[in-house]
Write a sequence for this structure.
């Protein structure tokens, strides 16, 4: 029988250290490992770019949480993305990306990988007919985010997996926004799960990292080869911080979801808010799919400010972002502290003028785990 989520988060890959009994996995701050005779490694470790025990513990833990056989831990979410795209695709291949993809993913695909010969189409993955129509004979991958960033769109992961597989393509799910506590894409048919562990997994805004999890052993071997060849690895302290964050993932995600629901309830009827984006809302177009594939709806909320009173809505959105006291004006998300940002000028500035451009009056919140009443009061005061 598979242990429950929190038991795996706290114990998977993290047996007490066999030599000292250390309950917590040590930070193996070493670049190299002694060999008993040439080629005689103790436990397979030779050099920390190839493998390091602290990183291995994190890889095993995250694989257990996503329900996958193989985990690979990277120095950032973007290095995980880059390694995966270059291993799974060849020049001339085509991929579909969400029309509101994470800004860094869009930039990597649009500015770096097209120069390498990759072709892509942005598509609204919530629209299955449009997604099917965008598939070409050369399509080898569908890149899915659900919920999306920053518009909180929901894609039907099981349906996309079916579509990808009929077309001879892989489905990759960037599961950063949901975390494995809220959603496990491999169980829904996805081939690879990607994380920016910088966000909810680390959970404390103190470390940058990335990860891939897959059941495909052949792909995992090629990814590990490429990772070692390119060197996109985190140091052992970063792996350790992430492992420490993961232990409390379940309780944090419950509280993020509770607080986000309270914030959404305060925003929906607010006269200065024209639209709230949250998959937990019954009127959200992806609500039913989200309810089917997610445990809860998470801590990310976006909203548009209303243009009432002749004020330029973008100026009003910028004013609100600068007026909160508890919600810190900053990029990133998924930490214990609440953050506010303006996607159009900050995280998604690189999409300006493209199909992926976001509304100018959009505000994105990463709702933290402070006291909900303090967060609501802060937002209401900032809205005025
Ligand atoms: C942050 C983020 C990334 C990139 O990860 P880094 O750790 O910043 O390199 C990718 N996808 C999503 C959804 C993200 O939020």
């Amino acid at each position: 029988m598979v242990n429950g989520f929190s038991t795996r988060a706290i114990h998977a890959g993290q047996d007490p250290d066999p030599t000292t009994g250390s309950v917590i996995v040590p930070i193996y701050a070493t670049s190299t490992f002694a060999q008993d005779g040439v080629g005689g490694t103790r436990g397979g470790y030779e050099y920390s770019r190839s493998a390091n025990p602290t990183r291995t513990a994190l890889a095993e833990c995250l694989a257990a949480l996503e329900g996958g056989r193989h985990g690979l831990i990277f120095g950032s979410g973007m290095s995980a993305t880059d390694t995966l795209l270059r291993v799974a695709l060849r020049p001339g291949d085509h991929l579909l990306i969400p029309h509101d993809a994470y800004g860094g993913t869009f930039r990597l695909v649009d500015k770096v990988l097209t120069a390498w010969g990759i072709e892509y189409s942005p598509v609204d993955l919530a629209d299955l007919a449009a997604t099917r129509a965008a598939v070409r004979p050369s399509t080898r991958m569908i890149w899915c985010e659900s919920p999306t960033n920053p518009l909180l769109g929901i894609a039907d992961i099981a349906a996309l997996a079916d579509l990808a597989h009929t077309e001879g393509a892989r489905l990759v799910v960037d599961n950063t926004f949901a975390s494995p506590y809220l959603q496990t894409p491999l169980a829904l048919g996805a081939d690879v799960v990607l994380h920016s562990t910088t966000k909810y997994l680390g959970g404390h805004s103190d470390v940058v990292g990335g990860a891939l999890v897959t059941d495909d052993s052949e792909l995992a071997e090629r990814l590990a080869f490429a990772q070692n060849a390119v060197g996109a690895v985190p140091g052992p302290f970063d792996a350790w911080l992430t492992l420490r964050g993961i232990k409390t993932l379940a309780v944090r995600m419950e509280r993020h979801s509770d607080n986000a629901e309270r914030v959404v309830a305060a925003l929906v009827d607010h006269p200065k808010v024209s639209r709230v984006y949250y998959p937990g809302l019954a009127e959200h177009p992806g609500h039913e799919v989200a309810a089917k594939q997610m445990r809860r709806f998470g801590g990310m909320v976006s909203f548009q400010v209303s243009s009432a009173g002749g004020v330029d809505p973008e100026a009003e959105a910028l004013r609100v972002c600068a007026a909160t006291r508890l919600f810190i004006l900053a990029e990133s998300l998924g930490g214990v502290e609440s953050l506010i940002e303006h996607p159009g000028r900050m995280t998604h500035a690189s999409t300006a003028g493209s199909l992926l451009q976001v509304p100018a009056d959009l505000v994105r919140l990463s709702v933290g785990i402070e006291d909900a009443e303090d967060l609501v009061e802060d937002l209401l005061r900032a809205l005025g």
